[in-house]
Amino acid sequence: MFKKNNLYIGMLYGCVAPVLAWLIFAVLLKNDSIFLDKPAIPYLIAIGLNLVMLRFSAKAYLDKTSNGIMIATFVCTLLIFVFKMHIS
């Protein structure tokens, strides 16, 4: 999976898990979710998956890809925080 050392590919990898979490929990499950009491749990799981991807790319010495994943993780975390604080 991690073969190219590119910042933009790292950002793309970093956006995959949060987008999938949003699609699965917000669009597909809507009101049937177990996590209705804690709506940020799917996004926290996505951030955890991003950190696992970050670890694998760092072990492969792909510095630019690791930076891209880290940037995407921080941006997604900030967006989730801002939207959750704004909605509440």
TrEMBL record:
Source superkingdom: Bacteria
Transmembrane segments annotated in the record for this chain: 7-28, 40-57, 69-87
Record keywords, A-Z: Membrane, Transmembrane, Transmembrane helix
Keyword Membrane applies: yes
Protein name according to UniProt: Stationary phase survival protein SurE
Protein source organism: Mucilaginibacter terrigena
Lineage: Bacteria, Pseudomonadati, Bacteroidota, Sphingobacteriia, Sphingobacteriales
